[in-house]
Amino acid sequence: MDFGFSEEQEKFRQEVRDFLEEEERRGTFKPVPHAWTTGYNQEFTSKVAQKGWISIWLPKEYGGLGRSWVDHCILYEEMVRYGAPLAIHFHHADFGFAGTIVRQGSEEQKREILPKILRGEISETQCASEPMGSDLDGTLKTTAVLDGDEWVINGEKIWATHAPHSNILTVYAVTDPQAPKETRTNEFIVDPTTTGVTIRPLPMLSGHPDNLAMVYFDNVRVPKTNLIPGRRTAEAMRSMAADHAYLHRIMAIYCLWDAAIKFVKKTKRDGKLLSQDPLIRSKIAQIEIELEIGRLFNYRIAVSKDKGFDLFHSGEAMVLKAYGAEFEQHVARTVMEIVGLYGLLMPAPELGPVLEEAASAYHYAKSASLRSTPLEYLWCRAAMEGLGLPSYIDPPRRTI
Amino acid sequence: MDYTLSEEQEMIKKTARDFLTDKCPTEFVREMEEDEKGYSPQLWQEMAGLGWMGLVFPEKYGGTGCSFLELAVLLEEMGYALLPSPFSPTVVLSGLLILDAGSEEQKQKYLPDIVKGEVIFTLALIESPARYDTASITVKATADNNDYILSGTKLFVPDAHVADYLLCVARTNEQVTPGGGLTIFIIDAKSPGIGYKVLKTAASDKLCEVTFEQVSVARGNILGRLDQGWGEVEKVIQWAAVAKCCEVVGIMKRILEMTVEYAKDRIRWHRAIGSFQGVQTDCARMLADIDGARLSTYQAAWRLSEGLPCRKEVAIAKAWMNQASERVLSRGHQIHGGIGLCVEHDLQLYTRRAKAAQPTWGDTDFYKEIVAEVTLK
Fold it and tell me: Nearest CB to A281: which of B9, B277, B372?
């Protein structure tokens, strides 16, 4: 057993911090909670790309650095802690989309797309969920029909993250309606400027106007070669979601929490620093305890992933995501308790940088238990995968 | 970074699991709850034969020189089996303290006997305020020529009634000094003036009240430095807290196993209750709680082994264990239904001990304050 980081890893962490300090000082970005998914900043993304820090996990043969998932976590732990704007490249391009292309992409797709991801030129949006169909159980309604050398896509998608800011949409569509519902789907690469694509932003209660969107496909024609080979089963889709959203979940709220700690150390109430108030101390300690547990869950998964572990069939991965979502909400709730009435303001400049967005962060955190996979699904999946409990969907095993 | 056990640790784990499955079934645990001694001297000898008492002590005292991490693996298995024995009081509370604070002469005198299983030690620390702080300690040791005379009462002393030696933390200086004016004494447990009463506890774990009436102890039996004992006590509290966490990780694992087994077998509305989302969610949360406890406990044990600073990590491990074990034992009972509350059912053997561990060696608030202190400094 070894719970420590190697000297090399510590050095890498410091290098990332130095970079972020420098870019923040230069004004390349201003720290904001949840900027990892709501902050679009091409200048910053390009600078990250110049460091070689997009898809650092990508094997050297594809132009990546071939770094470990532990390194990946270190990188993003610091990026998120500093409230850096990562929305263009993180999650979707960095490992979701790049992962799909590496695993299933054609040689041509690999040649064309991977270098662009590495240069920070691709911002991808996954168009999976639908208002009336789910990729969870293979009931998607969007179709793709081959017509000559083109696929014709029709349907509507919801919860398309970053869609108004993306230059690539990955669309899940049914290509073989006769196939079992678990295996009737393929993925397509679609340019969002193609005729027939309509993107309608969905303003959310967190105050973000276009972080999520509906995307409509009305006879959208894409070249035959835009199909990503390999039919996706519902399970494979979930597996990809697991791959791409479970790690780092715990870190989403670091930035806000660090700001809250600074706040209680310098803010006085009744002539006394908040940090000396036993009730505040108790709240701080509770979050710090939960944070450490979450970090341990996270790095355990990173280490397992480095060993080639299957995340989807693991209670541990489900636990990480579920725990991380609840943790994020607990932090947001606690911060709102600490800032009191200022939590009513959106923003509240009186609270200083980062913390001024407390209300937005609180509302944003509501999505933590819904994104990618809802909390209820995760806990039940953890019980089935991790503990071998039977599925409710299976027919009753015995009768009285 | 590596979260897996080494080959040697796996071996310790397997040996302990096999041995305790054979020697310490729950019938034995129940028997020991009623037993006056509360442990089996014969089993104690067999444990010594396996090298358990010597695991963490250097070879020159007859031990195998392993680290706290190997001890952690063993303690987890002892918890899993609910082993009733004065192992922790002897090895963790006392042996490690003698190794850390003792003179070479004291180490030569006591450690080989501990390793051989020939003596039982315990630590007499807590008094009526029932807190882990210097101010609560009032048992007084007064200098008298070459001796000290001890008077006062200690509480919650584990296995004192069967101990050969007591390490007693006593007040030697009324002035508040950095070490708290406290001194640790090694006392022959059969010395005249010492009285024992086994307390009736929820976990039937043989905690004792120990009274000292003009007990004479030779000056040479001071362990560590005069008036400076609190620094050592703080270390013991850390070791003891991590050791307790290890035991509870084992206990919680067993609670979850029993609960999952029950949820798979118990049929309601034509289905195993383990297929219901409410039950599944409870079970999965138990898994998360236990995983968190195991990881944070082993992290603390690893830092202790490596000699790294670990004040915050120990505090997090014990605070989490206290909170997590409450949820785990409550969910275990909820899923088992009424049968789990019956004395005939084994579940209560585990949940009573998990509960008893929560305030022992630092409750949640005690450790939350340490976490706050380190975070906000």
Answer: B372
- Do A386 and B284 lie within an 8 Å CB cutoff? yes
Cα diameter, chain A: 77
User: What distance, in Å, lies between the first and last C-alpha atoms of chain A?
Assistant: 48
Between CA A378 and CA A374 the distance in angstroms is: 6
Which DSSP state fits A347? S
Q: Kindly identify which residue of chain B lies nearest to residue A396, measuring between CA atoms.
A: B271
Interchain pair B69, A303: CB under 8 A: no
End-to-end CA distance of chain B: 28
Can you read off the two tokens belonging to residue A55?
């898809």
CB B178, CB B232: distance < 8 Å: no
Q: What Rg, from alpha-carbon coordinates, does chain B have?
A: 21
Q: What is the pLDDT of residues A224-269, one digit of tens each?
A: 999 998 766 656 666 665 555 577 778 889 999 999 999 999 999 9
Q: Does B283 touch chain A (CB under 8 A)?
A: yes
Pair of tokens at residue B46: 């067999």
The tokens describing A176, both together, are: 């073989």
Report CB contact under 8 Å: A261, B375: yes
Taking the C-alpha atoms of residue A48 and residue B246, their distance in angstroms, rounded to an integer, is 43
Shortest CB distance from B3 goes to which of A303, A392, A394? A303
Across the interface, do A285 and B375 touch by the CB < 8 Å criterion? Answer: yes
Of A192, A206, A139, the residue nearest A370 (C-alpha): A206
Residue A396 pLDDT level (bands cut at 50, 70, 90): low
Give the burial class of B361: count Cβ atoms within 10 A of its Cβ; 0-12 exposed, 13-18 middle, 19 or more buried: buried
For an interface test with B, give the residue of A67, A73, A249, A288 to mutate (most B CBs within 10 A): A288
Handedness of CA A63, A68, A73, A78 (dihedral sign): negative
Question: Do the beta carbons of residue A211 and residue A38 sit within 8 Å?
Answer: yes
Nearest to B368 among A282, A390, A396 (CB): A282
- Residues of chain B found within 8 Å of residue A379, distances taken between Cβ atoms: 280-281, 284-285
Chain A residues with beta carbon closer than 8 angstroms to that of B274 = 383, 389-390
Q: Which amino acid is at A311?
A: L
- CA gap A221, A275 in Å, rounded: 60
Whole-number pLDDT of residue A241: 57
SS3 of A41-64: the string is CHHHHHHHHHCCCCCCCCCHHHCC
Query: Which residues in chain B (6-45) have CB-CB distances under 8 A to chain A?
Result: 6, 9
Which is nearest to B137 in space by CA: B171, B184, B168, B178?
A: B171
Query: Which residues of chain B lie closer than 8 angstroms to A315, CB-CB?
Result: 284, 287
The reported pTM is 0.96
**Chain A contact for B171, CB < 8 A?**
no
Nearest CA in chain B to A71: B1
State the Cα–Cα distance between residues A230 and A111, nearest whole angstrom. 18
A184-221: per-residue pLDDT in tens?
A: 889 999 999 999 999 999 999 999 999 999 999 999 99
DSSP tally for chain B: helices H, then strands E: 12, 10
